[in-house]
Amino acid sequence: MQIIYDPRFINQFNTVWDYIALDSISRANSFKKELKEKIENLPYMPYKYKKSIYFHDKNIRDFIFKGYVIPYKIDKPQNALTIIGITKYKKEL
Predict the structure, then answer these.
(1) Residue 61 forms beta bridges with which residues?
(2) 60 forms bridges with which residues in the sheet?
(3) How many CA atoms within 13 Å lie on the side-chain side of 42?
(4) I need a labelling partner for 92 at 20 to 30 A (CA). Which of 21, 51, 63, 69 fits?
(5) Domains of the chain (ranges plus CATH)?
(6) What is the rounded CA–CA span in Å between residue 43 and residue 58?
(7) What pLDDT is recorded for position 91?
(8) How far apart are CA 10 and CA 49, in angstroms?
(9) 42 with 3: CB under 8 angstroms?
């Protein structure tokens, strides 16, 4: 299954990385490395995480990582998984 990073995710991730890097660049790089490893494992069990609370689509799931929500869409016909964004957990977007 191919992993696609939506431009929204890339922009939001860069903002998160910059924020963490204000405190520690090494922690920001560790966060990036760990997150990348977790995302690369999503295709093996794409339905592992609960349906998104932000979207009304059973194929969009919320992956939680260190207090951040990473919604992703499973597209079986295209054999793809799209990483939609990253945000601090909150009840509504």
Answers:
(1) 51, 72
(2) 73
(3) 31
(4) 21
(5) 2-88 (3.30.2310.20)
(6) 16
(7) 56
(8) 21
(9) yes
Query: Which residue is it, tokens 């890339």?
Result: 10
88 burial type by CB count under 10 A (0-12 exposed, 13-18 middle, 19+ buried): exposed
**Residue 55 vs residue 31, higher pLDDT:** 31
**Residue 92 in this model has a pLDDT that exceeds 60:** no
Predicted local confidence at residue 53, as pLDDT:
87
- pTM listed for this prediction: 0.89
Per-residue confidence band for 90, with pLDDT thresholds at 50, 70 and 90: low
User: Distance between CA 92 and CA 71 in Å, rounded?
Assistant: 13
Listing DSSP states for 4-62 in one string gives EE-HHHHHHHHHHHHHHHHH-HHHHHHHHHHHHHHHHHGGGSTTSSPBPSSSS-TTEEE
CA 1/CA 83 separation, integer angstroms: 13
pLDDT at residue 85 tops 70: yes
